[in-house]
Every structure is written in C-alpha cells, then in structure tokens.
C-alpha cells in the first residue's frame, strides 16, 4: 500500500461509517467539479455523462484517500507509543503487546522520530489496517510532534477580514441545530457560487472555479499568526536526524487529525492573546474544534453570500464574519429560496424535546439507507468502487447520490432520522487540500444526509418509475446534464443566473477509444499540464498510420478562447476525471477496449496505454489498481448454493468471468509494459532483460551484456515506479487467486479430487485472452490501428520480453531468500505467468535463455538446495524453485544435478565404510582369524566395498564390462567408480578419472558398432539409433543403457551421437512433431515437411507423392513395410520371437499380416495424420522393445526426480559433450606452470594448434583430458594445464606426455617451432595406453 491507498472499514468503531460519510459529503460540496470544456469537439459531447457518486469523482477520491492515510498514520503512532486497550493484543507493533511479552526486562518506548518513521512505513504497506489493534486508544494528549512548534502573533497589523473567514460555503443553506444534524441529501450544486447576481458589496458573483486565477494577494489572507519550529540541537552526522527528522517527515504527523486540532487550539490562544477574535485554522474555529457552538453574527446581511472578491474595507465587519447556519437559512428563505427538504429547528444547540425519537434503521425494497447513531452492519466501507453500481453491498450508494438523479419528485420527502454530531476526526478543509481551486478557509463542517431511493442506469434514462415533474430533475449518471460547458468558461453573469438551481454534476466521458485517447493526450501535452514523471520518453506523439476515413478530433476554435484563463485547468481536470472514471471501473475499462465483442489487439492496447501513461502515469496505475480489485471476487459457480464452500464468499459481490478477468489482466499488463522505455532494437530488449535477470541495474564490465548507463537507469525508473509496482503486485496476486478459484471448482466438481480439465466456460484459462492477443495472427482480436510492418515486428518481441521483466521484478523484490515458495500472493502469480509463457514459448518467439533468472541461483547453496529438493513434496500451494528449472542456466542445472549424484555417491561410500568398521569390531571382539575375515568379506562384497571396481582387459573391454555389471545392486552402482584397464598387458595406470574416461570411450564405441546388429549409424548425420526388430537380446540393450547411466552419474562424457528424440523419450516428453526428428533424420523431415506444405493447385497429393499409409524401414538388407494401424492392433515384428518357418505370419518384408497388401493412399485429408503417425512409428512402435530395455538400464543409477531438472538439450550435452571445440576460448582458460603466456614456446604451441583441423583438435583434447568432447558449460569447465617439462634440443628429443586425470600437458621446451610441431604430431598419433594416468 502507498499513501494513496484507501482505508478499509474498522468494525470496532461505531461512528466510523458516519465519519467516512461526512468526509465524502463535505468534499462533494466543496470540490471543484470537472466539466466538459466549451471548446470540446461534438464527438466528446455524445460520450459525456454526469457523475452523481462522490466516490467516482477523482478530486473527492484523492482528498479522502489522503485523509484516510493520515488517519492511519495517527493510529499507528498511538499504537507504537501508547498501545491499545486490549490486554490480549497480539499485534507485534503494539506497545501493550511488547510490555506483556518483554517479561521483567526493561522496555524502551519509541521516541517521536522512531514512532513517526515506523508509522509512515506501516501505513504505506499493503493492507495496513491488518496491523492495527482491534481496540485502539484515542489520543489522550496532544501529539508530541506539535511541542516543537511555536505559534506567534503575526507582526503585521494590516490584516483584512478575508483572513478570518471567506463566508458561508456552498450548500450552507441547510439548517443545523447543535449536535442533532438534519438529514439533508446530497444534491447537485447550483450553477453559481451564489444565487444572487450581486453580492453584498454590489459586485458580480464569480463563477465556480474562478478562484484559481482570481485569488486575493497572499498578504490580504494573512491568518494573523506565524508558526515556527523550536530550535533544537541536531547531530548533523546522524543519519536518522537528517533523513527522518526533516520537515517533510514531520509534516506527515502534523497533518494528522489530532495534530490539526491541537494546532487549531494553539493558534486560537495566540489570537486571543493578541486581542483579536477567533481565527479559523483549516476552515474551523478553535471553539468549534473543541465542540463549542459557532459564533453568530447579526442578521443584517442574512441571506446574501459574501463575494469572493477582496473586501473593500481593511478591517473586519460583521458582514464578513462567519454566519450561523440558522441565519443563512433564514436569509435564503427571505430571498424566496425555499427548500422542501429542510426542517426548521430552534437556534438552541440542544435537541428539542418535542421532536420524535429516531426511527429504527431498516432497509426496504427501495434500498433506502439512512444515517443512524446505532451500530452499523459490518460492511466494507471503501472509497474505491470496483463495480459500476455496487448497490447490493455498499451502504453509501444511496446516501451519496442526489435525489434529483433518481427521477423522484422533490416534494415527496422520506422521513429523516436524527443523527448524532459528526464523528469526523478532522476538519474537511485539511483533507481537501488536494482539491484544486478550493480555499481551505471556505470549507464548512460536514453534514449528515437523508437519501432517496436509488435507481439503476436504465431507470435514470427514462424508466416508468420516474415521478419527476420536470425534465431537469431527471439527471442521472447515465446521461449528461444539458449544460456541459464548465462554469469557468462562461463570462457573462447572465449565464450564471440562467442556471439558477439547475443540476450541476461533475462530468466525464463514459468510455475511451484510440481516437479519444489521442485527442486527450494531445490536448494535455499541448497545454503543458501533463504530470511530471520519470518515464521515458516524456511525451509520445501519434505514430500509427491514420485512417483517412475517420475525422481527427480537434478542439473548437473560438475567439473567446483567449479570454479563458482556466481552459488548461479545465481540460486537465476533465481528462483526469475521465481516466479515473473509466479505468477504475472494470466494466467500463473492458467496454472501452472492446469493439463488437472483440478485444483490442495487443499493439493498439499498448499504444493507448503508452499515451495515457505519459500524461498521467500515477492516475492510470492507481485507477487500474482499483479496477483490478474486482479480480479477487470469486466466480459465480463458487458462490452457488450447491457448492460446499459457497458460505465462504459473499453472494452480493459482483464477479468477473474468466474471459472478462483475463481481459482486465491483459489491460493492466499492457499498462505496465507501456511504462518501460521505448527501445527500437530487439537486441537491446534482450540485453536489458538479461541484465535485469541478474538483479542488476547497471551493466558493469563483467556483466552478461553491455548497454548504455542512460538506458539502464531509464529501465530502473520504470520498473521501480511505486504506483506501477503496486499495480503489478495486485495483478499477479489476482492471478494466483484466480488459479485458486479454478482449483476449488475442480475439487467441488470432482467430489474432493481435483481434475485436470474443466468443461465449458471454466475450461478457459484466465490468461487465454492475453495469449490470444499475443498471437499476432489471431482472428479473435479487433485491429483498430494500423502500424508499419517494422513496428509490428518490434512489438511482437517487445511484449513477451517486458512481461517476463515485470514478473521477474516482482519475484526478486518479494522473494524471502528461501527456495521454498508459496503459490499464493504476488510472487506466486508472477511465477504462474512465467510458467504459462514458458509452455507457449515457441508461439511467443521466446528462447530458453529469456526465462533464466540468475539472481536466484547466485543466492542459493549449490549443494544443499538440490539435496533438500529431493525430499521436498510440492503441492499446489507449497512449491520449490527447482520445480521450475528453466529459471536457471544450463551450467547451474548441471551443478545441481551433479550435486545430487555426489550426495548419493558419498552416502553409499559412507555406508560401506560403516560396514567395514562394524566387521572390524566384530572380528576383534570374537577373535576372527584371517581366513574367517576373508570369507566374511567375500560374502559381503556389495556392503563392504567402498568403490565399484571393474577389472577390464583391453582386448575384451565390452565383454568384461557386461560380465561384471550384470546383476549388480543399486547400492553398488551408486558408489565411486574405478577401473583397472589393461593390467594384463602391463599398464600401470592409476584411475583418478582419466582411465575411467578411456574405458567408457572404448566400451561405448564397441557397443554401438553397427557390426553387432543392435544399433545403426546414419552415414550422413552419424546419428546412432536402434535397429528395428534387432536379433540381439534385450539384456544387451539394458547393459548399454547402464553404461550410459554410469558415465552420466560419474560426470563423464561419451563419444556418441544420439538424436534429440532419444533424450526426449528418456525424460518422458512426447516425440510427435517434425522438429523433434529433424536433427536425426534430416532428409526424411524435409520430405515430410514438403508433403505438409504442398499446395494442391499444383497437383493432387496422391498423384504427386504417391505415398501409401505405411511405415517402412531397412532391416539387415531387407525392406520392411507395415501399414500404420493404431497400436496395439499392430506391432513391429521382433526376430527372436518369430519363427518364420513354423508360423503362418509372413516375414517382415512380405507385407501386412492379417490384412490386404494394399494400404490406403496418402491424400490431402489424411496427410497431417500420416506425418504424425510416421513420426510415432519411427521413434516408438518400431523400436519399442529395444528402447524400453535401454531405458531400464539408463534409470538404474540415477534418481528419478533429479531428471526433472534436465531438458533434452542439457541431457544431450551432459552425455555427449560439445563437439565443437573453440580453441580461442580454451586458450583464455588455460593455466601455465613453469612459464607464462608470453614465453616463446607457449606462443609457438598456440600458433601450431590454431592451424589444426577438427579431427586434430579432438585428438589434442583427448590426449590431454581423455575426452574429445567439451563438457557442458564450455571450455571454462575443462582443466587444461600447459606445464614446462625441461629443455630439448637434440633430434631424438622426448615426446610430449600428459596426465589425463589432471588435464596436464607436459610440453618440453624445444629449440624451434618445427621441432615442436613434429613431436606433438607424433605424440597425438600414438596416444593409446597409459603410463601414469
């Protein structure tokens, strides 16, 4: 919450509703109403309508919001310093709670500065009312902050009467008698400030709003005193004193209701001591502030309101002093202005005994609401109105509408109820300081109102229930009044007199469209009255292609325009009112951006938001924040009586459907996107997104991308805007709430078990309208504006990137630093948006790199977090960041995956060590002999061995590996892996990693050799795939899968090339599209693509392609063909299971068993199904048994949940490594021992290596590291050390050698480059076998 957030109702105060009502009543009567200016085009007059609800008037809303904020600050200050009256209070900020929980330890009370600082911070949070105590204490003593103020008599003696009083304000003709307030309805204000054309001094009455440019000189309005702050000694080195002790912070406490009352009292005492009469501070005298009666003047000028012009006499006169309401009413009666609503009462302040007692409060069929002194129903009394007509749940609606708007006769009066005195906590004048053109001294105390029956919009437009005797009385919110031009634009006094008692309401436009938005924004920008902001660019002009068939809206050219000094102000107020009125109402906002039932396209909607956010960004974001509140209302299906949880929700609260909610979310998100700076280069969009994904503001020297500092700061200004962030948090919180509603519907519809899909309207996801907009080829959007192809292409990339940036911004700011997260709130909603966009990343033209948020990875433990994730059970409410692995880079994911494997390996090693220790203890205790110990170790090899050790002969690598890995237990396979390779040939290599790498390289090369008949290798792409119907037994495929699993588990790469489809299947992802097989079967994918894209204008599909609906493959030189029937009706034949001589089934190449040999042709109607079936048969049906055996072996060593972290691309890079070797990158990460990079021999080495081809590069890398592939993450993850190994100058010099386990190349210092080239080439060609590896 920010200082402009409205306050929710506090049910512990019986007079709270009356106080809020009094505030709105006073502001309604004193606010300057926006009206459609006279130079507006006629098209706007057709859209103009009147506003009769104070909560829908922008100036009233802004002032009441400020009042509510200051009231909350006061409550928090009292709560922090004094506590509350509830002894069992559990609010941690309450002083009472602190005293109870501190024990016997001394407690330190907050000082003035600390309490003020904390109170302002707490009041600016979301839902600050939740932190207030249920039984707050009223202010017993004046606020401590007022003790630092000194009130001194003004040294000027030329004070005029205008400094004392500005006379009665509008609407003061209603009678008030003491503490008993008459029930007086809010009525539309008259056309002028005074009913008479001439005031008491004979001057002409000024029209409404003229005070903006006709105010009296400042010295003539001298209040008669000055306020100064006591000099205090301040430590200028103190941060708190210089930041929180400033006048700006103190002003927040000086403007609280209690402080205003205290300052009024002090000012009155100073004035009395100086020998003058009471002064008015904020429109009320000190005597009135203390509850005393108003001073009464004589009746010589009763009935005539004083002019706002400067009085002609310098000294106060009785006519300039404030008149009592009785005198004003009497004067009004003498002038013939009789009101049928006012009731005559004596001038005595006491309640007359003859008046009847108050009638009980009730609600009738007319929804009549009256003020009452009794306790009120517990309702949400918010100034914000999310629905256009919330009459069912809003007790203020009837009170805040004029009876003239209801079409009812003013002669038929409802019996009013007497109410107690106003419970307003502060003078109206102080809370209305945000109102434009309203002098603080002229504002009257609030009044209580009676109401008339409230009618709907249709009735206001001429329903049968209207009883108005005059058309003037039937003015409602659905139609504008006859006079749409604001009063300040009229100059003749006769125009004002003609209005008389005509209804004058605030005016607004009922909807927006691109033309209206362009006109309003152009007007504000031309007048120079736009809000000051930090968004870039500061101003935006029209850049779409103009439709020549539409007429451009232009202001009327009038000669009188030059004489209208307030025209700019009128347009500013009217535009602000229109934006507030339309954007804060979800229904009006949806209607504004919908055309003939179709939602605006994304580009048009973004353009409208871009223009509006450059003239009034705070207003636009605040209004949309109010409208987004309707997203939290549950759907109607949840509130039906048949639902078990229907009692949890209010049935009167208006809700939006999923479609409407999705459109409203899209409007808000486009407004947020429009706040970002305009960037013309898509690469800058991507670079800025990468910078901000690391939580950075500026791109430093080591940043992932380089962009100008000016652009980085502009991005920060946009994404750190308080109002925009406030809107973003509410929208994302609403998104998580809508997802919760969907789950509740699923649970209710499935009797407790959530379903995966919903039927009908509920099946439409709330983000479906947004994604439909982002599909730039969608026919479900209304394309209102025309943009160039370049602009369309840029916008197509801009929107998804900036949506991700906003979601990341909210997540970074709301993250609590732990990997366990909640699916609720703004964080959960932002994550839900990113997750939904990731599922549609191909349609949105987004790559995996755009979804990475390295900010989280940099702050998470690389070892503990993935291990804890294995035991974490994620639910729909409790999630884990690792449940969304696309947030992390591939190198981070690989680190997490290997941390999980290392943890399991360490656990297996420790368990074996523990068993060995137990055996040693038992053997020592029972005095086992050596023979017995050996027998025990032989019978418990799986439990006692710390390593998985294989003894492999170099001439029988694969056979020995299969024999020793067969039937191994899982606890053995998860232990650290070691190999004794070539021991029979005298090799004494010690396995520290290099020998294992060599073993896997030899073993996998033999296993995938096509001569064995288990796998086939494509001659063009070098891809390895299963042989359909292989004669090899399934256990061999399982052991091959186990070899791949062991290599992956131990962090080793293999010299293999599998198609991406295999890794998709291993991770449980479907293989059904052409792009899933294009890397392994490129020519086949190209041919099938041609089939799908063929245009039958050039010939029929069956004639041109002549394909039958069959799948064919070559097996052992035989062409095998099968009709692609739906499995399991047909399956690919397996040679070991079929006896061709003893069965009637034909051989695989002899046709389709069980049917005709003639298969149907592929036509235009079935070609899409043919392609999908062909891909399925190629990757699944034809090799199903072989693959399933390979998968069983692959999963033997790996934790099933750890595979959730991987994508097919990451898994492929971990198994195969990276085949492309970048020697430039390798040189940057190489370390040197015995010399440095500037040595001659080092330069010669790199000069020789840079000339190698790909084959020689792989040999060099294999010679040093035992692998010819670069691991995932690039050369930075390779240990490549170039070590000096003596000097060699003789022709028979030593060859270079290496330590493959340590990635070290031992390079002698040769006398010439040619000698080094020769010796290095000889070493690479004869590199098989190990000395010490």
From TrEMBL:
Domain HECT: 969-1333
Active-site residues, record numbering mapped to chain: 1301 (glycyl thioester intermediate)
Biased composition (Polar residues): 362-383, 419-433, 478-491
UniProt GO BP: protein polyubiquitination
Residue span of region Disordered: 153-225, 270-502
GO molecular function: ubiquitin protein ligase activity
Biased composition, class Low complexity, residue ranges: 384-396
UniProt EC number: 2.3.2.26
Biased composition (Basic and acidic residues): 335-351
Pfam families, A to Z: AZUL, HECT
Catalyzed reaction equations: S-ubiquitinyl-[E2 ubiquitin-conjugating enzyme]-L-cysteine + [acceptor protein]-L-lysine = [E2 ubiquitin-conjugating enzyme]-L-cysteine + N(6)-ubiquitinyl-[acceptor protein]-L-lysine
Keywords: Transferase, Ubl conjugation pathway
Protein name: HECT-type E3 ubiquitin transferase
Organism, scientific name: Schizothecium vesticola
């Amino acid at each position: 919450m920010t200082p402009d957030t409205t306050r929710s109702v506090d049910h512990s105060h019986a007079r709270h509703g009356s106080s809020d009502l009094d505030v709105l009543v006073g502001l309604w009567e004193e606010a300057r109403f926006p009206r459609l200016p006279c130079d507006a085009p006629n098209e706007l007059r057709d859209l103009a309508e009147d506003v009769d609800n104070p909560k829908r008037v922008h100036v009233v809303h802004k002032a009441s919001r400020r009042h509510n904020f200051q009231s909350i600050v006061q409550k928090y200050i009292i709560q922090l310093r004094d506590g509350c009256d509830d002894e069992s209070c559990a609010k941690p900020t309450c002083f009472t709670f602190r005293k109870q929980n501190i024990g016997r330890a001394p407690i330190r009370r907050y000082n003035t500065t600390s309490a003020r600082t904390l109170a302002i911070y707490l009041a600016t949070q979301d839902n600050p009312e939740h932190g207030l105590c249920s039984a707050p204490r009223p202010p017993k003593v004046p606020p401590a902050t007022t003790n630092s103020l000194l009130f001194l008599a003004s040294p000027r003696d030329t004070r005029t009467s205008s400094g004392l009083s500005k006379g009665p304000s509008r609407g003061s003709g209603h009678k008030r008698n003491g503490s008993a307030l008459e029930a007086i309805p809010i009525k539309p204000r008259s056309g002028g400030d005074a009913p008479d054309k001439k005031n008491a001094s004979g001057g002409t009455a000024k029209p409404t709003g003229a005070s903006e440019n006709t105010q009296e000189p400042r010295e003539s309005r001298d209040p008669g005193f000055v306020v100064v702050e006591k000099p205090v000694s301040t430590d200028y080195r103190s941060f708190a004193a210089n930041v929180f002790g400033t006048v700006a912070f103190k002003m927040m406490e000086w403007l609280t209701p209690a402080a205003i009352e205290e300052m009024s009292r002090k000012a009155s005492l100073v004035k009395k001591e100086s020998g003058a009469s009471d002064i008015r501070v904020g429109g009320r005298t000190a005597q009135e502030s203390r509850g005393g009666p108003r001073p009464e003047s004589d009746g010589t000028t009763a009935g005539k309101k004083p002019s706002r012009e400067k009085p002609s006499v310098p000294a106060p006169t009785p006519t300039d002093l404030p008149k009592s309401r009785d005198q004003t009413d009497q004067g009004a009666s003498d002038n013939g202005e009789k009101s049928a609503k006012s009731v005559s009462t004596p001038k005595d302040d006491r309640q007359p005994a003859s008046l009847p007692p108050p009638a009980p409060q009730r609600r009738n069929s007319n929804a009549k609401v009256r003020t009452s002194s009794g306790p009120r129903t517990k309702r949400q009394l918010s100034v914000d109105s999310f629905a256009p007509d919330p009459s069912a749940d809003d007790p203020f609606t009837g009170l805040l509408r004029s009876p003239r708007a209801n079409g009812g006769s003013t002669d038929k009066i409802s019996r009013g109820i007497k109410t107690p005195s106003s419970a307003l906590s502060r003078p109206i004048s102080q809370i209305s300081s945000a109102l434009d053109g309203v002098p603080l001294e002229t504002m009257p105390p609030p009044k209580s109102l009676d109401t008339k029956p409230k009618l709907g919009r249709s009735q206001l437009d001429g329903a049968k229930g209207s009883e108005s005797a005059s058309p003037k009385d039937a003015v409602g919110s659905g139609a504008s009044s006859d006079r749409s031009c604001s009063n300040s634009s009229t100059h003749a006094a006769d125009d004002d007199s003609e209005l008389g008692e005509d209804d004058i309401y605030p005016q607004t436009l009922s909807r927006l469209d691109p033309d209206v938005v362009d006109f309003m924004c152009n007007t504000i920008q031309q007048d120079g009255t736009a809000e000051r902001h930090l968004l870039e660019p500061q101003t935006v002009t029209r850049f779409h292609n103009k439709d020549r068939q539409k007429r451009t809206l232009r202001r009327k050219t009038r000669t009188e325009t030059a004489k209208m000094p307030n025209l700019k102000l009128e347009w500013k107020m009217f535009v602000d009112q229109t934006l507030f009125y339309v954007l804060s109402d979800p229904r009006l906002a949806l209607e504004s951006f919908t055309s003939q039932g179709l939602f605006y396209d994304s580009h048009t909607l973004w353009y409208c938001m871009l223009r509006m956010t450059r003239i009034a960004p705070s207003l636009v974001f605040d209004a949309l924040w109010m409208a987004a509140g309707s997203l939290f209302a549950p759907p109607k299906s949840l509130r039906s009586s048949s639902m078990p949880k229907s009692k949890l929700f209010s049935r009167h609260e208006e809700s939006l459907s999923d479609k409407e909610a999705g459109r409203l979310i899209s409007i808000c998100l486009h407004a947020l996107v429009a706040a970002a700076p305009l960037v013309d280069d898509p690469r800058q969009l991507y670079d800025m997104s990468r910078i901000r994904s690391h939580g950075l503001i500026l791109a430093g020297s080591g940043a992932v991308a380089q962009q100008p500092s000016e652009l980085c700061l502009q991005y920060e200004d946009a994404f750190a805007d308080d109002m925009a962030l406030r809107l973003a948090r509410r929208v994302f919180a609403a998104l998580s709430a809508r997802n919760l509603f969907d789950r509740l519907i699923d649970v209710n519809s499935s009797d407790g078990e959530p379903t995966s899909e919903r039927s009908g309207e509920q099946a439409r996801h709330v983000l479906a309208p947004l994604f439909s907009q982002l599909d730039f080829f969608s026919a479900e959007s209304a394309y209102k504006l025309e943009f160039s192809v370049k602009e369309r292409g840029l916008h197509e990339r801009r929107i998804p990137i900036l949506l991700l940036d906003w979601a990341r911004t909210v997540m970074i700011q709301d993250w609590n630093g732990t990997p366990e997260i909640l699916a609720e709130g703004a964080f959960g909603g932002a994550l839900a948006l990113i997750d939904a966009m990731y599922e549609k990343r191909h349609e949105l033209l987004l790559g995996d790199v755009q979804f990475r948020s390295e900010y989280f990875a940099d702050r998470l433990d690389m070892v503990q977090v993935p291990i804890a994730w294995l035991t974490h059970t994620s639910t729909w409410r409790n999630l884990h960041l690792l449940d969304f692995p696309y947030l992390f880079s591939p190198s981070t994911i690989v680190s997490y995956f290997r941390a999980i494997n290392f943890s399991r390996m360490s656990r297996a090693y420790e368990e074996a060590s523990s068993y060995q220790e137990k055996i040693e203890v038992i053997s020592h205790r029972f005095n086992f002999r050596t023979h017995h110990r050996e027998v025990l170790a032989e019978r418990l090899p799986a439990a006692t061995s710390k390593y998985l050790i294989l003894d492999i002969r170099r001439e029988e690598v694969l056979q020995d590996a299969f024999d020793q890995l067969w039937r191994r237990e899982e606890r053995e396979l998860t232990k650290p892996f070691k190999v004794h390779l070539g021991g029979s040939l005298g090799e004494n290599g010690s396995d520290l990693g290099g020998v294992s790498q060599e073993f896997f390289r030899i073993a996998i090369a033999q296993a995938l050799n096509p001569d064995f008949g288990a796998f086939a290798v494509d001659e063009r792409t070098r891809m390895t795939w299963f042989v359909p119907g292989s004669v090899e037994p399934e256990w061999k495929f399982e052991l091959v899968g186990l070899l791949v699993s062991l290599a992956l588990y131990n962090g080793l790469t293999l010299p293999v090339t599998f198609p991406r489809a295999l890794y998709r299947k291993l991770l449980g992802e479907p293989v059904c599209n052409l792009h899933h097989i294009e890397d392994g079967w490129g020519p086949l994918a190209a041919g099938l693509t041609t089939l799908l894209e063929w245009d039958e204008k050039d010939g029929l599909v069956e004639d041109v392609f002549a394909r039958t609906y069959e799948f064919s493959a070559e097996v052992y030189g035989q062409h095998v063909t099968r009709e692609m029937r739906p499995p399991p009706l047909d399956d690919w034949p397996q040679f070991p299971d079929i006896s061709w001589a003893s069965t009637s089934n034909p051989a695989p190449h002899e046709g389709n068993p069980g049917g005709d040999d003639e298969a149907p042709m592929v036509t235009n109607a079935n070609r899409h199904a043919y392609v999908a079936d062909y891909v399925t048969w190629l990757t699944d049906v034809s090799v199903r048994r072989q693959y399933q055996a390979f998968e069983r072996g692959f999963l033997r060593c790996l934790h099933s949940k750890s595979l959730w972290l991987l994508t097919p691309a990451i898994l492929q890079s971990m198994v195969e490594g990276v085949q492309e070797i970048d020697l430039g990158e390798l040189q940057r990460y190489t370390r040197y021992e015995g010399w440095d990079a500037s040595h001659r021999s080092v330069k010669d080495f790199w000069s020789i290596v840079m000339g190698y081809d790909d084959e020689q590069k792989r040999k060099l890398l294999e010679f040093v590291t035992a692998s010819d592939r670069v691991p995932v993450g690039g050369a930075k993850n390779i240990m490549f050390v170039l070590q000096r190994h003596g000097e060699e100058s003789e022709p028979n010099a030593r060859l270079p050698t290496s330590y493959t386990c340590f990635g070290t190349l031992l390079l002698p210092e040769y006398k010439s480059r040619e000698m080094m080239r020769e010796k290095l080439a000889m070493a690479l060609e004869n590199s098989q076998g190990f000395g010490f590896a």
